[in-house]
Amino acid sequence: MSLWLGRVTVIPKPSVNDPQGLAVLDGLHALGFSEVEQVRVGRHIDVRLDAEGAEEAEARLCQMCETLLANTLIESYEVQVQPVQEGAAV
Amino acid sequence: MSLWLGRVTVIPKPSVNDPQGLAVLDGLHALGFSEVEQVRVGRHIDVRLDAEGAEEAEARLCQMCETLLANTLIESYEVQVQPVQEGAAV
Amino acid sequence: MKVGVVTFPGSNGDTDCIETLKLVEGCEPQLIWHKSTDLMGADALILPGGFAHGDYLRPGSIAQFSPVMREVARFAASGGPVLGICNGFQVLTEAGLLPGALLRNQYILFHCAWTHVRVSSNRSPWLEGVEEGTVLRMAVAHGQGNYFADTETRRRLVEQGQVAFEYCDPEGNTSGESNHNGSVDSIAGVTNEAGNILGMMPHPERSSDPLLGSADGRVLFESLVRSMAAGAVGR
Amino acid sequence: MSTPVTLTDAELREVALSRQEYDLGVRLLGRETNRVELGILGAMWSEHCGYKNSRPLLGMFPTEGPEVLQGPGENAGAVRLGGGLAAVFKVESHNHPSAIEPYQGAATGVGGIVRDIFTMGARPVALLNSLRFGPPDEPNNRRLLSGVVRGVGDYGNSLGIPTVGGEVGFSASYRGNPLVNAMCVGVAPADGLVRGLAGEPGNVLLLVGADTGRDGIHGATFASVDDPHASHKGVIQVGNPFLEKLLMEACLELLGSPHVVGMQDLGAAGLTSSSVECAGRTGSGVDIDVSRVSRRETGMTPYEVMLSESQERMLLVVRPDGVDAVREVFEKWDLHSDVIGQVTADGTLRVRDGVEVVCELPIRLLIEDVPRYTREGKPSAQLLERRERDITPLAASVDLPVEEQLLRLLASPNIGSKRWVWEQYDHTIGTSTVLGPGSADAALMRVRQTGEGMAVVMDCNSRYCLLDPYSGGMGAVVEAVRNLACVGAKPLGLTNCLNFGNPEKPEVYWHLKESIRGMSDACRALGIPVVSGNVSLYNESEDEAVNPTPVVGMVGSLPDASKSVGIGFKEGSDVYLLSGGGQPTLGASEWLAVLTGEEAGMPPMPDLDAAARLHDVLRTGIRDGWIQSAHDVSEGGLAVALAECCIAGDVGLATSEWSTGADPVELFGEGHGRVVISVHAQVSEEDLAARIGDSARWERLGRAEGKHLMLGKAAPIPVSSLSEAYESVLP
Ligand SMILES: Nc1ncnc2c1ncn2[C@@H]1O[C@H](COP(=O)(O)OP(=O)(O)O)[C@@H](O)[C@H]1O
Ligand SMILES: [Mg+2]
Question: Phi and psi at residue B58, in whole multiples of 5°?
Fold first, then answer.
């Protein structure tokens, strides 16, 4: 068993409207970032977990997304896994 | 000018209290994901913007983080940039 | 008739439901702890408003796995009447007991105000005998009440009479202005196919006393008592 | 214990002690302190915990009365309601944290004041807030405003406590140093109040709630120096309202438990001040082992653990044989608790880290021996010039039609609608809000157990206090009482938050002292006890003090919550102006500030006897039902008051016999003794004269009808235009 860091990204699906994204877009425009075309706001979740290997860690993270971390009706998710160096803080 | 996708990750700094992370950790444990040690919850923001090149895009995104997207007193951010294929949706 | 009101950690409308139900003839309200798997003989259930588990991650996302929810699902499957108010509605959609999802309000901010809703379909024990088209004045207070469902689901909802409430003006007309949180098709409340599960963002329990601004919300509880008395609800 | 050290000025400054203060501490202690002791001494002797500058002045307040159940000195004050209940309330500031991080600063401010209330064994039933910012047209002030409002809202909303009232004001003096004062009101059984007591030696200290992190270390000291940005070093506190909700429910579930001796929340200076206060109140000592405190982070020192201001923590003092039973209740709510020490008999704060003793200080050194300063106060020549200035020529320079003047005032930041703010606050949760924000001069709650009405309000006109702190302090009290009277309630008790600049400056000290004197005199004359409060000094930016802002919070009652009125005119009723003492003036008025840009002249002086009689008329008329609405004339004068009554009632005002000219003093002057009422049409003028007697002067203004406000001879203004201007200010 070793320690892994799962980096989970959850983003609203394209067909779902994203009020926060629109608000941030307006905010950026108001601040003069006129080059911005579109913004979508989702969640990022860092999960430190024990697993036998990267594959197992990834599989478990996907289960976590399906059950809790994402609402797959309206959101899609991506999972990345990396090993944690002993003693490193998240 | 061409179109870029900035993928911005905003995460509470290590010593900052993260109530969301604590609640999600408890939730995962209750669901039987006992291998999880720590969770930190942040935001993920996808920004589509026009820029001369990847470097310019990245520099602008960092400015956006400093002014609006992140609260640098309590959060740290990471920025990744990738080119957008014509016609692709975010 | 026993009405069980579930307390999740972070629920804050549970007491309001209990106090309001005490005023409705024929109702005997009782609290049910979220860790309980015993519904204590309840004839109907209410999932109240609040911020279960802080609403962290997504509203209702963690509460859907509370031990009591398995019993709620079983109770609902046998036809028992279930009402989800505000956060309770969010829990029901997260648990998949009602269609759709509740997104952040269109203008992002938490919004507490008096609104009007129109009864679009009364196909529910909670609305039995309430004439369709009736306009009710009700309190709303939420940050994530922006109802979303895809086009196909919405078509089905309308066809099957599952849209219980729509935001409207005092005359009963829907418009962008009366749709304060940006819900699709101004939807303020929906039922499951059978009609026994109702989820709504407005607060009938806060709209049941004229001294506090409106007594219109009482019709839900009175309808429930009527339909239970008539034996119209299976268990 | 580690060996003594000789300290540099910088090290002393970090704990906000002067060299003299440190020397005094060493003399009293009979030895030098170690680092841990130094931090603890600095925190307890800070202005924030020790009230070095303010305590002598606070002695002016009357604090006793037949209805007082708990005066100052506990976590909150309490007064008697009907039916064996008590109203428990206090106000608290979170100005400095909000300047740094508006959302979290405001949120944790609400968290702190709510803990003060449930610590007393009261269920919180209402929140209010008093906010001040720089001009709203500057982006930074808007950022602060929107962050603070979201923070106040999210935290209170999550807890399920309605936020029902408060005030929002703007002035350039708050640029860089906004004021965020939160007030909480709870209801408890009158004979079941809980206190922060340590009790018998051997009692166990139980720390409950959040794990301890490095948050807000030096918070207490950082609130006691004048540059928050420069002095702030600790980690920003992030609030967890969910955890607080669990703590609140668990603590309230423990009410009446024979095992619980005392409860104390952890606020400024964390574990240090909470344990020292508990011990101090019963003359005991405490022995704490910091190694037993659950941490959020590794490597924390005893110093950090003792001074951390991590939120959502409570200290319980429990009888030794009841610890398991008490912990069981917390476990039900999924709350973690640690036994961290015990009460001792020796009057000492002893801190250990495992076996090593790292601090040993007498409790009395930390509480009673705090240095006290009495200073000389003096207004500046410039201020005196400003208030003695003849404003008549200035007023005469305003050359706009009356309608235009009124619309400008309605659309100005201090007067305009705050709907955008209070719609972010859940004000209907709790099914007890009879009169919520925007509908009345005070918020009115129905006490669930008895049906009694409990009215609550916060008030302060800081421009008045700037130009004349004595009458300004009085005015804040009188206006709060008048607001209560306008819903039909009589006052029971007062809490306050004294927001001032650096008291070491003579003018600031003068403001502080004179404001307190004015408040005290008004409280004595009107029979209102001061039962709790908070002091926030060193509110400055760029060396400029904020306007003196002694915010008054007041709680009142009326026997039947349903016999109350709001401000909105009732269609078809007759509208009268009631006057009880004091002349309206344009000095220090909103009209002068908005239309000429000048804040000058002498503010109005209250006539306390006349005010008391006027308030009696209001309460009687509302109770008996012939007064159908009431609204006091304050900022913006009579014209603004009338406009607000029209907007709230959605009806116009037709004036026939009222033939005012365009005299700005009459229309826009401010004073302390006027109220606009609408009276049931069946009550004739003779009848009204008989009911009022010589308790107040009255004048009929017209009838509430139609869709226009007619201000005497001025052109009629559509109520819709008034509304539009009024709602145009925020966001
Ligand atoms: N302006 C004031 N008027 C009356 N009492 C005050 C005032 N300021 C503080 N107090 C009282 O002094 C005590 C200590 O206040 P404070 O340090 O704010 O308490 P806490 O530890 O709850 O933050 C409280 O009992 C409070 O009511
Ligand atoms: Mg306290």
Answer: -65, -40
Rounded to the nearest integer, the mean pLDDT of chain D is 95
Structural domain spans, chain C: 2-229
What ipTM describes this predicted complex?
A: 0.94
Q: Is the pLDDT of residue C182 over 60?
A: yes
Q: What are D138-173's pLDDT values in tens digits?
A: 999 999 999 999 999 999 999 999 999 999 999 999
Cβ-defined contact of A44 to B10 (cutoff 8 Å): yes
Q: What is the DSSP string of D243-305?
A: HHHHHHHHHHHTTT-TTEEEEEE--TTHHHHHHHHHHHHHT-EEEEEGGGS-BSSTT--HHHH
Task: Dump pLDDT digits (tens) for A42-78.
Answer: 999 999 999 999 999 999 999 999 999 999 999 999 9
Domains of chain B: 2-83 (3.30.1280.10)
| Cβ of residue B27 closer than 8 Å to a chain C Cβ | yes
What is the CA(D264)–ligand 2 centre distance, in A? Answer: 6
- pLDDT of D714 reads 84
D535 lines ligand 1 (CB under 6 A): yes
In the prediction, which pLDDT does C230 show? 86
Residues of C in contact with A17 (CB under 8 A): 103, 148, 182
Q: Nearest to residue D352, comparing CAs of D268, D293, D310, D283?
A: D293
Taking only the tens place, the pLDDT of each residue in C191-207 is 999 999 999 999 999 99
Low-confidence residues of chain D, pLDDT below 50?
Answer: 2-3
In this prediction, residue B90 carries a pLDDT of: 47
Full-prediction pTM beyond 0.90?
yes
Residue D80: count other Cβ atoms within 10 Å of its Cβ.
18
User: Could you write out the three-class secondary structure of D379-435?
Assistant: CCHHHHHHHHCCCHHHHHCCCCCHHHHHHHHHCCCCCCCCHHHHCCCCCCCCCCEEE
What distance in Å separates the CA atoms of residue D685 and residue D48, rounded to the nearest whole number?
A: 55
Residue D581 gets the label, from left (phi > 0), alpha (psi -120 to 50) or beta, of: left
Predicted pLDDT at D352:
97
Q: Report the C-alpha gap between A67 and B26 in whole angstroms.
A: 14
Is residue D506 helix, strand or coil? helix
DSSP-derived pairing of the beta strands D163-170 and D123-133: parallel
Q: How far apart are the C-alpha atoms of D443 and D456, rounded to whole Å?
A: 5
What's the mean per-residue pLDDT of chain A? 94
Angstrom distance (rounded) from CA C97 to CA C79: 12
Of C149, C141, C165, the closest CA to residue C51 belongs to C141
DSSP notation for D186-241: EEEETT--------STTPEEEEEESPB-SBTTTHHHHTTSS-HHHH--SBPP---H
- Give the one of C61, C62, C108 whose C-beta lies nearest to A71's C-beta: C61
> Closest Cα partner for D535 from D15, D90, D87?
D90
**Residue whose CA lies nearest to ligand 1 atom number 23:** D267
**Catalytic annotation on D631?**
no
Q: Within 13 Å of residue D343, how many CA atoms lie on the same side as its CB?
A: 29
In the structure, what pLDDT confidence band is assigned to residue A90 with cuts at 50, 70 and 90? Answer: very low
What CATH number is given for C2-229 in this structure? 3.40.50.880
Residue A3 has pLDDT above 50, yes or no: yes
Task: Quick: pLDDT tens for B12-62.
Answer: 999 899 999 999 999 999 999 999 999 999 999 999 999 999 999 999 999
Cβ contacts of A27 on chain C, cutoff 8 Å = none
Query: What angle (nearest 5°) sits at the alpha carbon of residue A74, between those of residues A71 and A80?
Result: 60
> Tokens 């400095």, residue?
D96
Helix, coil or strand: residue C28: strand
The number of CA neighbours under 13 Å toward the Cβ of D525 is 19
CB neighbours of residue B36 within 10 Å: 20
Read out DSSP for C206-235?
Answer: GSSBGGGTB-TTHHHHHHHHHHHHTT-S--
